[in-house]
Design goal:
mainly beta; globular
Length: 107
């Protein structure tokens, strides 16, 4: 079985199946900012990937959804130890929703 071709420096966070495409939410952490990308492939050609969009954010996007032709991204935080976490580990942007309008290409 083939793997989704995610560049080495990127990490996958979420998958979305919509209108015959598989979308993958990936991120690249660069010093003080995060590069968020969405790639997609037709479900009948799962090795035919293309980038849909890219933006920078103060923290990573943990999840996403597509409604009509807009994307919505939920920003998140990562904690080292879930049993003994500290408030300082939570980014202030955690829980914010980013909407990017007209981001889904037509076929």
């Amino acid at each position: 079985m083939d793997k989704i071709p995610i560049p080495d420096k990127y990490r996958a966070w979420d998958l979305l199946l919509k209108n015959g495409y598989l979308y993958v939410l990936i991120e690249d952490r660069n010093s003080d900012k995060t590069i968020v990308k969405v790639i997609r492939s037709p479900v009948d050609k799962l090795m035919d990937w293309s980038e849909v969009l890219q933006f920078s954010a103060p923290t990573f996007a943990r999840s996403f959804e597509a409604i009509n032709d807009d994307f919505y991204f939920g920003l998140g935080s990562e904690i080292e130890n879930p049993d003994h976490w500290k408030q300082i580990e939570l980014r202030p942007e955690t829980g914010q929703i980013i909407r990017i309008q007209h981001a889904i290409p037509k076929k």
